[in-house]
TrEMBL record:
A Pfam family assignment: FAD_binding_4
NCBIfam families xrefs: PRK11282.1 (NF008439)
Spans through the membrane: none
Entry keywords, A to Z: FAD, Flavoprotein
Tree of life domain: Bacteria
Protein name as annotated: FAD-linked oxidoreductase
InterPro entries found in the cross-reference section: FAD-bd_PCMH (IPR016166), FAD-bd_PCMH-like_sf (IPR036318), FAD-bd_PCMH_sub2 (IPR016169), FAD-linked_Oxase-like_C (IPR016164), Oxid_FAD_bind_N (IPR006094)
Domain FAD-binding PCMH-type: 1-186
Length: 400
């Protein structure tokens, strides 16, 4: 169909999608790949001529609770998959982020987009990233060819592994048509240990101590004073069988007693708190600020934020025990890119500009710039899978 001067293709099957891509390749027509369109404002501005939507490729194709595996077409709403899993007491392990609060977007996140952007939240420190749970994909390459990689059950992952390559490729290598994830049981008890009043250095030290213990956290975050209230909050989530959780909470309290008297939060209050951490909701307003997602060595997180704060006004909080920093700063000038990339280079890690006006995203590196040897590899992978550069051109890196 036509939308203004932009054509939108909405295939209802993998075969139809393959035909559309093959025809686009014949015309060298650049395609913007979209699912629920909740992350359209993330990445470099589009450089395309038509839109290829995966929302017509919807439906759960396999669910084996005993094997703990679910497969669905890529346009299946994430909420539909999570609801099905919840009925059987299961969940996606990696706690995918909902970008809508931060990006002020609408629509429904899709399961294919979760795989395409390697979408991972606070539970990554325990369960790994989306990439680690993704065991099978089907996709259409830039020649219009359907490709399958991986398996539909955990014990049958065979063949050339393109699964990990597609995860986090942001739709630049192919149109995902089906994805398969392993799942985990929902835990009997979920609770959070909360320390108050710690500064960033003391909080990250406490989180590192807890994460280094045998008492298994599934979330480790720190909210500095002013982010979620007048006092700082250091959060440690503990999950599992009720007796195990009770024991581990007691041991963690003893381990961290010099940091203060830890309180327990659970139920809907705890769930709401972790959703806000997951979605970076604390930085959603003001919506004019630029927002960065910075990964670094956990113990050096406070060093990174201190370096940025010496250069410009900023607000931030930590996830992954200090290894993930969500940081907001004014979008004016260079949106903090000079200070942030210098701090990350000194400490190690990478930074992604998650939210900024289109003009800013067009002028800056949104994703971490790659050294030339890695950029040559990236270009080679792109050329192998999408020789005419049809899919999301320039979304991650200019000219790729």
């Amino acid at each position: 169909m036509e939308t203004g001067i932009m054509t939108t293709y909405a295939p209802a099957s993998e075969q139809e999608a393959a035909a559309i891509v093959a025809q686009a390749a014949g015309r060298s027509e650049r395609l913007r790949l979209v699912g629920g369109n909740t992350k359209a404002a993330l990445g470099r501005p589009p450089q395309d001529e038509a839109t290829l939507s995966g929302t017509g490729l919807s439906g759960i194709t396999l669910y084996e609770p005993a094997e703990m595996v679910v497969a669905a077409r890529a346009g299946t709403p994430l909420a539909e998959v999570e609801a099905l899993l919840a009925e059987r007491g299961q969940m996606l392990p990696f706690e995918p982020i909902d970008h809508r609060p931060l990006l002020s977007s609408s629509g429904e996140p899709t399961l294919g987009a979760v795989a395409a952007v390697n979408n991972s939240g606070p539970r990554r420190i325990n369960a790994g990233a989306a990439r680690d749970s993704l065991i099978g994909v089907r996709f259409i390459n830039g020649r219009g060819e359907p490709i399958k990689s991986g398996g539909r059950v955990m014990k049958n992952v065979t063949g050339l592994d393109l699964v990990k390559l597609m995860a986090g490729s942001w739709g630049t290598l192919g149109l995902l048509t089906e994805v398969t994830f392993k799942v985990l049981p929902v835990q009997e008890r979920v609770t959070t240990l909360v320390l108050t009043g710690l500064d960033d250095v003391a909080a990250v030290d406490a989180l590192s101590t807890a994460l280094g213990s045998p008492f298994e956290l599934t979330g480790a975050a720190h909210l500095p004073a002013g982010i979620a209230g007048s006092d700082s909050l250091t959060l440690m989530r503990v999950e599992g069988f009720a007796k195990s959780v009770e024991y581990r909470l007691g041991e963690l309290r003893r381990l961290l007693r010099r940091r203060g008297d830890a309180q327990i939060v659970e139920g809907e209050d705890g769930a709401t708190l972790w959703r806000a951490v997951r979605d970076a909701a604390f930085l959603a307003e003001p919506g004019t600020d630029a927002v960065w997602r910075i990964s670094t060595v956990p113990g050096r997180g406070p060093e990174v934020t201190a370096a940025v704060a010496r250069d410009r006004s900023a607000r931030w909080f930590y996830d992954w025990g200090g290894g993930l920093i969500w940081l907001a700063t004014a979008a004016a000038d260079d949106a903090g890119t000079t200070a942030i990339r210098a701090a990350v280079q000194a400490a190690g890690g990478h930074a992604t500009l998650v939210r900024a006006p289109e003009t800013v995203r067009a002028a800056l590196h949104v994703f971490e710039p790659l050294p030339e040897p890695l950029m040559r590899i990236t270009r080679g992978i792109k050329a192998a899978h999408d020789p005419k550069g049809l899919f999301n051109p320039g979304r991650m890196y200019a000219g790729v």
